[in-house]
């Protein structure tokens, strides 16, 4: 029926039999075309040919908790293109504000209007941007008690229920190849969601999950966080002596554990003060070469970098256009969005109290189980990010490949975007790969959109990254 019914195509243009008309009517009864969620036009947007939808999916049985989504169909051939779920991290930050409107969505706010993103990922796929968990962005729980102590397991289950019910609402996407991608703390969200989907599929096979792509992800707390010291040192951000105390006296994983555990010691405080003094508050840790910032892009990473001194962080952004745009009443009406329990839409939640020590739970072992179950995995790193540096991610992927007994099928080499080196890559077996994006920050699609799109396209197609000029 997928070829018969499209929410972008007037039914009058489709020639069908009487039996097919009955089937179409049944699909309409199920809400397949979601007239209520269709976006007629976003304020200030340029003309586009693809469909856009936004709205809520309830994820509990009492009608108290609902997750907000923004969905853009592929620019061309949406009926044949795969379905992709995009998740930002934090935990507690918005995939709408960061992913959709700052990174790889079809538009970016500019003053009172939206400008077209020429490297939008909906050139290659139908993309869902999900604000999760409840309490993030427009997503909500009418019972505020829910916000106390949300953890990874709760988030994974809500995300799976969302996908299950979203597919009921959009049945034309049932059975479609499904991929999940995201960055930062999505290194926790995505593997745990994929794991419960694989388990669910053993009884009710409704998710055609093919692969996951994890950008600058938190996969194993100690390795990821402690690789920061070497990155700082090798990029000239700290001295030799500070590097020694940052690796021996108090490393970064110990500092974060003490900080979030409410037991910060004077020793770790002194070490971090020294590191902070040398790295400078005027250098963006999420892109060590960047001179400007967009706070909506950086907010999801602040949680990974706790600061022990008030007023330490300098925001050089005079105006955040994404925040301004998503707080406009006309925009909220066009998105079918509402603010419940909060006065303003924010990049990262002010009401959610996430169990931040979930950071210490490794997800790299879940990634291994996904590879063994036939799910393709790509781990990619913007190479200018010092928050979750490429060196830690590369080490984790190499160790995982060794533990799984996977042979290198593509040796470590450069890949190209156009006539420039786009980054480096290595592939293990046919299900696990690692890649860097040259010149990219923690939020790679924001800082290197064209190279990120090349990477995304190759991932969806299951092909090696380009090894020659194009």
Automatic annotation (TrEMBL):
Pfam families: Peptidase_S10. One of its GO terms (cellular component) is vacuole. One of its GO terms (biological process) is proteolysis. Its main location: secreted. Belongs to the peptidase S10 family. It is found in: Secreted. Keywords: Carboxypeptidase, Disulfide bond, Glycoprotein, Hydrolase, Protease, Secreted, Signal. This is Carboxypeptidase. GO terms for molecular function: serine-type carboxypeptidase activity. Its EC number is 3.4.16.-. Probable carboxypeptidase. It comes from Oryza brachyantha (malo sina). Residues 1-33 form the signal peptide. Coiled coil: none annotated. Gene3D superfamilies: 3.40.50.11320, 6.10.250.940, alpha/beta hydrolase. It comes from the Eukaryota.
């Amino acid at each position: 029926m997928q070829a018969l019914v499209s929410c972008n195509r007037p039914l009058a243009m489709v020639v069908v039999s009487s039996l097919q008309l009955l089937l179409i009517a049944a699909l309409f009864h199920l809400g397949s075309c979601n007239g209520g969620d269709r976006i007629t036009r976003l304020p200030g947007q340029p003309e586009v040919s693809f469909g856009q939808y936004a709205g809520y999916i309830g994820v509990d049985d009492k009608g108290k908790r609902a997750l907000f989504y923004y969905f853009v169909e592929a620019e061309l051939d949406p009926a044949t293109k795969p379905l992709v779920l995009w998740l930002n991290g934090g935990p507690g930050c918005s995939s709408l504000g960061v992913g959709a409107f700052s990174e790889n969505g079809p538009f970016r706010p500019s003053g009172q209007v939206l400008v077209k993103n020429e490297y939008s990922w909906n050139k290659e796929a139908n993309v869902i941007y999900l604000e999760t968990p409840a309490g993030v962005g427009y997503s909500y729980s009418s019972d505020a008690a829910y916000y106390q102590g949300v953890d990874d397991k709760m988030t994974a289950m809500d995300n799976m229920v969302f996908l299950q019910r979203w597919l009921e609402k959009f049945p034309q996407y049932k059975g479609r190849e499904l991929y999940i991608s995201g960055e930062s703390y999505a290194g926790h969200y995505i593997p745990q969601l994929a794991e419960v989907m694989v388990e669910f599929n053993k009884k009710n096979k409704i998710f055609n999950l093919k692969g996951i792509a994890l950008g600058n992800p938190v996969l194993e707390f100690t390795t990821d966080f402690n690789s920061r010291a070497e990155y700082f040192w090798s990029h000239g951000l700290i001295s030799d002596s500070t590097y020694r105390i940052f690796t021996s006296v108090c490393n970064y994983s110990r500092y974060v554990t003490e900080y979030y555990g409410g037991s910060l010691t004077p020793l770790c405080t002194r070490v971090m003060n020294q590191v902070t003094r040398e790295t400078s508050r005027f250098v963006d840790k999420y892109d060590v070469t960047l001179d400007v910032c967009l706070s909506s892009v950086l907010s999801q990473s602040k949680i990974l970098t706790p600061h022990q001194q008030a007023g330490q962080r300098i925001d050089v952004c005079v105006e955040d256009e994404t925040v301004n745009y998503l707080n406009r009443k006309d925009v909220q009406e066009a998105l079918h969005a509402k603010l419940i329990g909060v006065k303003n839409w924010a990049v990262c939640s002010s009401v959610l109290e996430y169990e931040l020590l979930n950071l210490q739970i490794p997800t790299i072992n879940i990634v291994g189980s996904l590879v063994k179950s036939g799910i393709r995995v790509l781990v990619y790193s913007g190479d200018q990010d010092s928050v979750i540096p490429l060196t830690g991610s590369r080490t984790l992927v190499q160790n995982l490949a060794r533990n799984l007994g996977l042979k290198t099928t593509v040796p470590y080499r450069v890949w190209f975007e156009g006539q420039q080196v786009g980054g480096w890559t290595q592939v293990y077996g046919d299900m696990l790969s690692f890649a860097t994006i040259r010149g990219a920050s923690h939020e790679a699609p924001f800082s290197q959109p064209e190279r990120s799109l090349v990477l995304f396209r190759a991932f969806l197609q299951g092909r090696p990254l380009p090894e020659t000029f194009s």
